[in-house]
Write a structure and sequence with these properties.
The protein is mainly alpha-helical. The protein has 9 helices and 3 strands, in the order H-E-E-H-H-H-H-H-H-H-H-E. The chain folds into 2 domains: 146 residues, Orthogonal Bundle (Triger factor/SurA peptide-binding fold), CATH 1.10.4030; 73 residues, no CATH class. It comes from Aerophobetes bacterium.
Length: 246
């Protein structure tokens, strides 16, 4: 593979694995300003511009203000999660960071990898820090999901009720709830082989899948409530005009 193609491929790997984007900005063109303060930690204009560029690449936005608001909300939530990870004493070792770095780098030579970093205006230490932040967030959320296991109970009546709704949907009920449609998208393969005339699939065949789906949905709601609680307890200050950062 030619070096140019390799660099392009690695750029995509960087973006998809770490959700980062680099927007080269000359210091003379943009004075870095404080956009928000989250529990004493600042978010700057440069950081916000990078986040906006990332979202813009994944989604089409005509409304620049809406894009800015979404990007800022995402960054605030990230800061809150990282602060909570620190409070929970969750850590990521340098060896773990190096392992992820090695997996991303793959068979690339040090020279090509360094060229990639320079192309993205990113130092190796900055890249490692981004890996660490991602691992911290993932580890915190995984811990919270484990803690929720004992809190989430799925009753037989819930499974039966969901199954009856699923049967109606398979028979052509267009008023099915979105979660029924979502279940069908996830477990499409498990629903194959049903009687197309009756739209039937036995409860015994898919009850484990239904229970797993309902459990995951409840945990998602608990996770959302937990995040909303963290958000409500945080001290967040939005700088409407922006302040120059030192």
């Amino acid at each position: 593979m030619r070096k140019g193609k390799m660099l392009k491929l690695l750029t995509l790997i960087f973006f998809f694995l770490l959700n980062i984007t680099i927007v080269p900005v000359e210091p003379a063109q943009l004075i870095d300003r404080i956009i928000a303060v989250v529990n004493g930690e600042i978010i700057t204009q440069r950081q916000l511009v990078r986040e906006m560029s990332l979202i813009r690449r994944d989604w089409e936005f005509q409304d620049e203000k809406k894009l800015r608001d979404i990007a800022l909300e995402r960054m605030i939530n990230e800061y809150i999660l990282l602060q909570e990870a620190k409070r929970e004493k969750i850590t990521v070792s340098s060896q773990e960071v190096e392992k992820v770095l090695s997996d991303i780098k793959g068979d690339l030579s040090d020279e090509v990898f360094q060229e990639m970093l320079e192309k993205e205006d990113l130092s190796l230490e900055e890249f490692k820090e981004r890996i660490k932040r991602r691992l911290l967030r993932e580890r915190l959320i995984a811990q919270k999901l484990r803690e929720m296991d004992d809190k989430v109970k799925i009753e037989k009546e819930e499974i039966r009720d969901f199954y009856l709704k699923l049967k109606r949907y398979l028979k052509g009920d267009e008023k099915a709830q979105e979660e029924i449609k979502r279940f069908c998208r996830i477990y499409r393969e498990n629903l194959k082989g049903t009687d197309e005339n009756e739209g039937e699939v036995s409860l015994e065949r898919i009850q484990d899948k239904i229970e797993s789906f309902l459990r995951r949905r409840k945990k998602e709601k608990l996770l959302q409530s937990w995040m909303e609680k963290l958000r409500s307890q945080a001290e967040i200050e939005i700088k409407t005009g922006g302040e120059e950062s030192g």
